[in-house]
Structures are given as structure tokens and as C-alpha cells.
Write a structure and sequence with these properties.
Length: about 170
Amino acid sequence: PDAQGNSTLVPIAGGKPAAELKGKQLEAANALRDDFRTDTKDFATVADSYGGIISSLQLREGFGDTAAIYGLVRLMDPGSVVREGELATAQNAPGLTEGLRNQVNNWLSKGVLTDTSRAQLLRTARVNYHSRRKGAERTTGRYEERARRAGLEPADVITEYSAQGEDAVDGMLE
């Protein structure tokens, strides 16, 4: 808000100030942005889940382990809703290795993961995140090109998604 409490629009880095986008150009930017967000919705969930897994595992205790397992299920199936009573279905999550499945079952009975299990969970999350990130980068490239063809700055269309805390992962896996 400005000094009088009115909302102000701040331009996206690299893009045109919102006041410069008018008429059909503004409509095109809004339509492309909506399409981009729809096409990258799952990756936004994956990036958020991966960031949550990293921060949860840094706690190195039961509540953090619980949050990390919820996050892993969500990362592996972004459209899923993981409810408290449904966590046991994590053992059937697609892409879960047998060893990690056993660790999840162990966690279900004891409530805490071992350091080895935490590292394995983090490695699984990391591989899946980076794999899905490549797909999101391809989608981003297509939308950047579409924006340019429409005479728009890609920054007026693209939303950047990244996982918070990823710089800490290497130290957590040592």
C-alpha cells in the first residue's frame, strides 16, 4: 500500500509495469499466466512439499518425521489429500522403494525414523523433485516462447517455483 493506504501494483522483475499492459496485451498476459499456473500446478505442490520435507527432517524428531512422510506422499502424488487416518496408505505410494516402504511401516509403529531412514526419505524426495523439475522447466520454456510470440515479457506470464532449503540437502545426506 502507498502512504494513503491504497494498494499499488509492483511490476514483476524483468516485466513491464502493470500499468503498461493494456487491452488485449493485458488479456493475453492474464490468459497465458492462468494457463501456465494450471499446467504447473502439480509442480508447485511438489516444490512446496520438497521444501517442507527438508525443513521437517532438519528437526530430527517424531513430529518432523511425521510431516516429512506426509510431504513425501504429497510429493509423489501431488493431487492426493493425505489425511491423518490415511497415512498408512503411504506404504502403497507409487515409486516407494521396498526399503523405504519398510521404514514407513516401522515409523507407523514407532513414530520416529532412524537417521538412515531420514536420509533415504530425503534422497527419494530429491530424485523425484529434480525429475519433476525438468518437466516444469520444459513447460516454462514453452510458455516463455508463447509469451514472446504474443509480444509479452516472459516474466509477465511465468511464476518461478523452487523448493526452500534445498541448499541444506547435501549437508543432511553426509
